[in-house]
Amino acid sequence: MAKAADPARAELDARNRWNSLDAPPPPVDDGTGRKVALQPSARLREIERRARIITASTSLAEAVCALLASAGVEAEVDQVRAEPGSDEQVMAVRSGHRVVPVRPATTPLRVWDVAPGDTTIDLAGDAAVVDVALDSDGWASARAVADALAPVIGSPAT
To answer: Is 63 within 8 Å of 104 (Cβ atoms)?
Structure first.
């Protein structure tokens, strides 16, 4: 297993990225030394927004995995996945044959089975639904996510 991230730093990064989902692009130099704001196309803005969701969820997944590891639960940052029924991709946390797409500031989370040796979510079974407590500002902290997931995905680390 890779070295665990600093959960506080990873969560702060996730929160900052999440809060900048719809931030305008920075101004660019027009070649004469002036800064100008360019408005990207709607398609480019959507691509940028989706990329920001993935990076925010990656940082949150890193923090969650570090907290799970400190609680003795084996888990790792998995891969980018789309929650079944959604076209929005986020990073997932994996523990054994269970994966959890982790979308920041979202509850409930769904725990899906993945067939051994496969990376495809098994849609034949039902997902376990895990409620995560949200902070007053609507954020699901890494600690709240880890605490909610541990009894569902975890088996003690060996």
So the answer is: no
